[in-house]
Design brief:
By secondary structure, the protein is α/β, with parallel strands linked by helices. It is built from 19 helices and 14 strands. 42% of the residues lie in helices and 16% in strands. Helix 11 packs parallel to helix 13 and helix 18 (410-420) runs antiparallel to helix 19 (427-441).
Length: 442
Amino acid sequence: MKAILIFPGITIPGFNSFGSYRSVDANYIAHGLASISAYAKTNGHEIDLIDLRKLKNWNHFEKIIQAKNPNIAGIGFMSVDYEPAIQAANIIKRLNKKTKIIVGGVHPTIATEEIKRDENIDFIIKGEGEITFSKILFDLEQGKDIPRVLEGEPPDLNNIPWVDRDLFDYRGELRTPFVSTLKKPFVTINISRGCPFRCTFCQPAERSVFGGKVKRRSVINVIGELLYLKKKYNFRSFLIHDDLFLQNITWVEEFINAYKTSGFTQEFICQLRADMICKNEKLIKKLAGIGMTWAMVGFESGSQRVLDFLKKDVIVGENIKASEILKQNKVKIFANYMFGIPTETKDEVWETVKMIRLINPEHHSPTFFTPYPGSHLYDYIMDNNLSLMDTYKKYDRSTASGDKIKGVDYKFLREVINDLIPKKRFPQLRNIVKQSLKHIMS
């Protein structure tokens, strides 16, 4: 069967954004769609892609759909891209009602009832989509009856092909390192799916997509892909996309040995938890020794009460100690932290400011708490009538994306963030905060 996949990720970067500026949102591939394509192709299906970031506008999209006239279209999306995803589906159906539209990804999984109300959506895949999407194509070819909502069949990560990077224009990712000091060419990989922790701003939505247990590719499988990427792109740095890299200590030890044995010296960035860093100081030293030059850490808050409210299962002291361990090993810190958390007081905001100043990260990544559907805190917000989420664009977590919940002084928070970020180190980020503050005050 022939199918067109559609990547609707234009809410943040916009139309005609691909390659136009150094932005991960404008240039990175969607691993979910790329994995679905790879699996479908190994099963004999023909897969094409329309990346909205490379189009001028909706008229441009309409012309492409008219020219291709697909029988089947697959759209994968997160909550932030709900509106362009649905608009794409509407255009496709308006041009040809016989085109079958299949949707999947995070938002269709955690907000299935909402998606079901849209008559233009023919099939909804919940959870992981590789195997189920391919099966739908076979069933459509044979004229079989197919349920409208299907539970995705979880794949064995070692028995599915590596993601189809050729589906996208991979030049964008190659020339867009996650942080500017990482060397080009740059690539991204996924090693595992899932997270065992219970943070209320994420769970149980994340488990709805990937299930209750963490799945991990074998070290041999991962090294094999890295060798392939080295041969094809001669990459000099990479990002490990996983929610949490440092989960299985035995696996990480094996990876370190295999990485060195295979001759890799490329630097990389990955995501770590503060408590895991503190518990595995010797392992951090080994990771730094093979090329881990950056670590993304979700510090979230400097208030212990807020961390406990988030069920982060980390103490503030571990946040501080983890940053010291990373600095001792010359690993740069990409600091993720939140403001505007439900019940957070201004005094607790200042506790976060104090913590971040002590950590002194090489990269600041402040966000506003955003209530994602399917999470415990989303239910808390809805139960207490606190939501200000009047557009899906607000699911962008950046500080320029608008106010999220009632009872939060966002003007104060923007001023705090603008003062917290070093002027020389992050002029672009400071400008975004200033523009957002100006907009809110006008």
